[in-house]
Amino acid sequence: MSAPPSALEVTRQLLRFDTINPPGQERSCAEYLGRLLEGGGFEVGFYEFAEARTSLVARLGGSDDRPPLCFTGHIDTVPLGAQPWSADPFSGEIEDGKLYGRGSSDMKSGVAAFVIAALGLARLSRPAGGLVLVITAGEETGCEGAYHLARLGAVLGRAGAIVVGEPSSNQPFVGHKGALWLEARTKGVTAHGSMPGKGINAIYKAARAVGKLEDFGFNVAPHPHLGTPTLNVGTIRGGMNINSVPDESVITIDIRTVPGQTHESLSDMLASELGEEVEISSLVDVEGVWTDPRNPWMEDVFAIMTDILGEPPGIRTATYFTDASVLTPAYGGVPTVILGPGEAEMAHQTDEYCHVERIEQAVEAYRRVARAWCGF
Fold this sequence. Notes:
By secondary structure, the chain is an alpha/beta fold. It has helices at 7-15, 27-39, 104-124, 144-151, 202-214, 263-274, 296-309, 324-330, 356-374, and strands at 43-50, 53-60, 69-74, 94-95, 98-100, 131-136, 161-164, 173-176, 178-187, 230-238, 248-257, 279-286, 289-290, 316-318, 336-338, 353-355. It has two domains: 7-176 and 289-374, Aminopeptidase; 178-286, Alpha-Beta Plaits (2-Layer Sandwich), CATH 3.30.70. The strands form four sheets. A six-stranded mixed sheet has the order 1-2-6-3-7-15, sandwiched between helices. Strands 10-11-9-12 form a four-stranded antiparallel sheet, covered by helices on one side. Strands 4-5-16 form a three-stranded antiparallel sheet. Strand 1 (43-50) and strand 2 form a beta hairpin.
């Protein structure tokens, strides 16, 4: 078995794959990682929810007595944006200790780090507890790859705990809010703009709905660490031209939920509040994730990170959603930590970067968490 490359080398290689979503096109990137893992002794399977939208699941070791530890991350990225980059977003340039590129923080550095950590453990032995690596396509647009794997049933197998390599500056996050993105549509009757009484204005209906949404109350207590749920009207569009009564208008709504809220009941509440003149449909529906910091495994992770970081981590949560929204319930609600080398505030930014030193720090963290799980 040849020695694997460094996590920094793998991150730079991953950055060279253009996996901007849409369209995604993650197949080549997934195959590169699959070859690395197969060369290290992992059993690898590839799964596509659409043409070239490839996720992979890799396994090593395991026993009937103890389920594997799961590491997970996604390989799609968001678009570059309208602002010009000062560095080539696909070359993996390094300057002043920072690795630049689209996906450097969110989250190809995290994927590279846990792949290299896993390959290092494979060189030592076949861990009794086992490892399963779930690397997904399509996370940025609503966890499409993770949902596809979950629907396939036996593909995911078992897991006893999950490490999500999303950007956290190597601070362990114990949860994140859920995301419910809705489209609210109003309909009217078109007429000439000089005779508005002959029509029904769909934008007026939408405006009334926006007013109600601004004042909407969730009627739930704040979560001690995730805070309160939030609602934001992100876009509104409608109308054909200035001199016609608009016969359709569409609002998009971004809701972030906390544990204890169910998205189905929340959608019903909104439908009741907005009334019959508004039709609601779901665009993205991903539940939140929360693990009690007093969970024994989470305490073990915090102890490891205290040693690595040199000080006890605080109890933190992520502002974004992750594939754990799908995988944690698919694995039976197992404890889940979000822990990755990327900088959360750099996610989706122009000139996105990751601190180089955090990548190797993450490899060490993943290695120690995995060794503790597997008992060696």
